[in-house]
Amino acid sequence: MSGDRDVTPHAPATGVRDDADARPTPSFRRLVAAAGTVLAEAGVPSPEHDARALAAHALGVTRYEPALAPEPADEVRVAFAALVERRRRREPLQHIVGSAPFRHLVLHVEPGVFVPRPETETVAQVAVDEAAAVTRAGDVPLVVDLCCGAGGIAASVASEVPGSRVVAVDVDHAAVSLTRRNVEARGVTVHRGDATAADVLCELDGTVHVVVSNPPYIPPDAVPTEPEVREHDPDRALYGGGPDGLEVPGGVVRTASRLLRPGGLLVMEHAEVQAEAVRRLVAGTGAFVDVATRQDLTGRDRMVVARRASTDVRAGVGDSRP
């Protein structure tokens, strides 16, 4: 491990110094603190949090509590040092521990599938709220999650709105497999297919209450700077195609216009800089009204919402943010 902070476990202290270099075993708390420093020097954005998460994973507990955790066996210290080294090399924390929190859930995460992000939780909230409103109106909500990735949105709707019917779609085999794990026993139907295809879920045309999506939308010239994203998230889950990254989102909007019933809701994530372009894209289909940009929890423009018109119209495309 680079740097002068040693998080490598030493042999247990025997009380007898065999040579001048013999050192007592540092407490695990000190190792965790040193790991935080090592991760900070490697540029990890949340080093102390990640060090504690890795400690919890090595100990086999859900949360590391320094004041309560007993001193672990040497093999745990060795395992912890190996985990810290992986994170120092900027392997995503979620890949190392195999899970990621998302709203009220803990999702399984695997390499090769897009890691769920906290900002997408706000997108899921809009879908949950709409599905709950449909339930209160006495109907059974039908929600479709296009480009479902690890299935966080689909799992959230299914768990937070009991009785809802949820369908999740992704073109990637690994994403479909992972979504099935994450929605197990929640009654979600998982379908492998191209969310932008003209015939995907055609049997549901005109019946869906909510279409929600976190599609790939990064433009080709906006390569992420974070190694965790650039080197570990799959390209097909990042880049939206076309010069502006909106080729896939445009296909999702067209699919939504076909699936949604009149008055049904579209909610789709996008990059902060794409807000105006996405509003124009949605309104330009002539299939939606009430096209608006909404913000995530940090106040950034991160999603578009729109209602399916009863007949095709040419909706206004001004900044209709509430």
Automatic annotation (TrEMBL):
GO terms for biological process: methylation. InterPro entries: DNA_methylase_N6_adenine_CS (IPR002052), HemK-like (IPR004556), N5-glutamine_MTase (IPR050320), PrmC_N (IPR040758), RF_methyltr_PrmC (IPR019874), SAM-dependent_MTases_sf (IPR029063), Small_mtfrase_dom (IPR007848). It catalyses: L-glutaminyl-[peptide chain release factor] + S-adenosyl-L-methionine = N(5)-methyl-L-glutaminyl-[peptide chain release factor] + S-adenosyl-L-homocysteine + H(+). Its EC number is 2.1.1.297. Substrate binds at N214, P215, P216, Y217. SUPFAM superfamilies: S-adenosyl-L-methionine-dependent methyltransferases (SSF53335). Residues 143-217 form the Methyltransferase small domain. Residues 1-27 are annotated as: Disordered. It is an enzyme of class 2 (transferase). GO terms for molecular function: nucleic acid binding; peptide chain release factor N(5)-glutamine methyltransferase activity. Keywords: Methyltransferase, S-adenosyl-L-methionine, Transferase. The keyword Methyltransferase applies. Methylates the class 1 translation termination release factors RF1/PrfA and RF2/PrfB on the glutamine residue of the universally conserved GGQ motif. Belongs to the protein N5-glutamine methyltransferase family. PrmC subfamily. HAMAP family: RF_methyltr_PrmC (MF_02126). NCBIfam families: hemK_fam (TIGR00536), RF_mod_PrmC (TIGR03534). This is Release factor glutamine methyltransferase. It comes from Cellulomonas carbonis T26. The gene is prmC.
